[in-house]
Amino acid sequence: MPRQPRLEAEGLLYHIIARGIESSKIFRDKTDYSFFLNRFGKILTDTQTDCLAFALLPNHFHLLLRSNKVSISTVMRRLLTSYAVVFNKRHKRSGHLFQNRYKSIICQEEPYLLELIRYIHLNPIRAEVVPGMDDLSSYPYSSHYALLRKIKLPWYTPEIVLDQFGNNYQTAQRKYLNFLKEGLSFDRESKYEGGGLKRSLGIPNVYPTESQAFDDRVLGDSGFVLALQAHEENTRSRREDVGMEDLIKVVADFYSFSTEQIQGNSIKEGLNKARAVAAYLASSKLGLSFAEIARDLNVHRANAARMVNRGKTVPLNDQIKMRLNI
Q1: What's this model's pTM, rounded to 2 decimal places?
Q2: Which domain CATH number covers 279?
Q3: Parent domain of 294
Q4: How far from chain centre, in Å, is Cα 2?
Q5: Do 109 and 185 lie in a common domain?
Q6: 187 and 246 part of one domain
Q7: Which residues, including other chains, have CB under 8 Å from residue 249's CB and lie 6 or more apart?
């Protein structure tokens, strides 16, 4: 069965899970953890993405993020690619570090926000990385550690979580810890990894016609799932109104080139800038992958990625925006 495209929308809550290939370790020592957190923090700051919870374990990690203008897929691509390059170089290895695609689940904040934070913070215990609550409080690779004010991370704001439990820090911390302990008695099997309301409650999907209303990419009730699907359909319709061929023509006309020049290998002055703008718009507005952009612009995939990054830095002209309806 073909995998579904990722759902993307600004301001939503995302539960991200990434695992090492064949369950191998993605963190081997303190340096690995430290580099990941520093890189993660920089990307969050650059993209103005909020992190509400995280837990790093030897062979996988969990993140709870709230998206902003920059898509979560862009945030994760930057994080995973840069981390894998440094990890492979440090440990003298090659090949893929992470298993397939990371898992990305859009979550309904009410009633799942605190439950997700608890689930993520208890993960080191459930994975038997630490034996219990006392040891969890000393585990430095989780936002639980920051919530207890044992470390200050400039890109993480504990108050976002603690304010849910009270205005006074001591009171809020006590209530938070009690809430966390209550979660230890729950079934170890995750109820917070997507599938709409039925999967969240462990109810089988009996009717085939309901399959799309209970989406594996979403954790929430049916109304939330259907609203997201409507948003996705509207986004897809807008994308279908403008295709890559139209986009290339608009960019080519604006920069006074032909579409053949944009898609060719000419080194005429100004072409690289025009191609970069076309690549960036194809990525950010049409949602095309680097491979698709490379195909349409007749370049290597690695060059497509570089073109997209360069295109981000070019101010987008209003004439292009109006002609592409963006």
Answers
A1: 0.68
A2: 1.10.1750.10
A3: 242-324
A4: 20
A5: yes
A6: no
A7: 259
21 within domain boundaries? yes
Q: What pLDDT digit, counting tens, does each position of 232-287 carry?
A: 666 655 555 678 898 999 999 989 999 999 999 888 888 999 999 999 998 887 77
- Residues 182, 71: Cα–Cα separation, whole Å: 34
Residue of 238, 231, 187, 234 lying closest to 11 (CA atoms): 231
CA angle, 262 then 236 then 298, to 5°? 20
141-200 pLDDT, tens digit each: 999 999 998 989 999 989 889 999 988 999 999 999 999 999 988 755 455 555 443 343
Among the candidates 157, 178, 193, a domain finishes at 193
Query: 176 and 53 in one domain?
Result: yes
Yes or no: say if 276 and 310 are a contact pair by the CB < 8 Å rule.
yes
What is the C-alpha to C-alpha distance for residues 166 and 176, in angstroms, rounded to an integer?
Answer: 9
